[in-house]
């Protein structure tokens, strides 16, 4: 319906008080300016200017048109500046394992906001296997997930290991300490979802010691695991850092024998370089700095 050039003409006429003055300032013939405005009024079926003494002024409709169009001009200038000056802007689709949301994520995003205020983040909290698939399907740009589940071909940077232990309600379970694999196998356990590596590792660890069917419940929400442990539903496997952020949960780490100790969780941040090369490197640097 109208072009950027039309709006620039309207703005020049308004700022300089008339068609002749706009012609003098822009170097465009007054007749050319008049024809452009006349054709625009015909297309839009409106009157943009009205006479005011020896000059012209915007009509009410003309003011509305210019006000709204000024926003478009400002957006155009911003986009051109970002593209030509290398400014990082736009939306980053970030997938994060829940463990990381309570540890490095807040610090990482705060760093990125201070360095690149025009970036916007859409954050998805999911299991590592789902995030790996979403990265390959171009549904996520950058993911923080269990290292062993990073997709082939991804640019991967390891993050510091996360300690992982057994937790129990102070009120609901009376276990010997250090607890053995046999002690643990006879109790209900709440852990990561069934599809995850930590869940499978726990089942493999305890199955030889279970006299009956092993009861390992899975949840994608670590907060849910924590609350279930607190209420005495079972004993839980949780990252130490998660429990540390919930001191009011009133659960404690259970001392276990050496063969029952859980391995650290190995996380990594990764992206596909052909899709998110520059921003992927920037977010990776922030993640590593936040983990220190």
CATH topology (fold) name of the largest domain: D-Maltodextrin-Binding Protein, domain 2
Structural class: alpha/beta
Number of structurally distinct domains: 3
Overall geometric form: elongated
* CATH architecture designation of the largest domain: 3-Layer(aba) Sandwich
The helicity comes to 40-55%
The CATH H-level superfamily of the largest domain is Periplasmic binding protein-like II
Q: What value does the Rg take, in angstroms?
A: 31 Å
Question: Strand-and-helix sequence, N→C?
Answer: HHHEEHEHHEHEEEHEHEHEHEEH
Largest sheet: 5 strands, mixed
How many strands? 12
Enumerate the spans where pLDDT stays under 50 for 5 or more consecutive residues.
none
CATH class of the largest domain: Alpha Beta
Query: What is the distance, rounded to the nearest whole angstrom, between the alpha carbons of the first and last residues?
Result: 54 Å
Organism: Thioclava kandeliae
Pfam family, one: LysR_substrate
Family: Belongs to the LysR transcriptional regulatory family.
Domain HTH lysR-type: 2-59
Task: Summarize this structure briefly.
With 292 residues, the chain is an alpha/beta fold. The protein has 12 helices and 12 strands. Helices cover 46% and strands 19% of the residues.
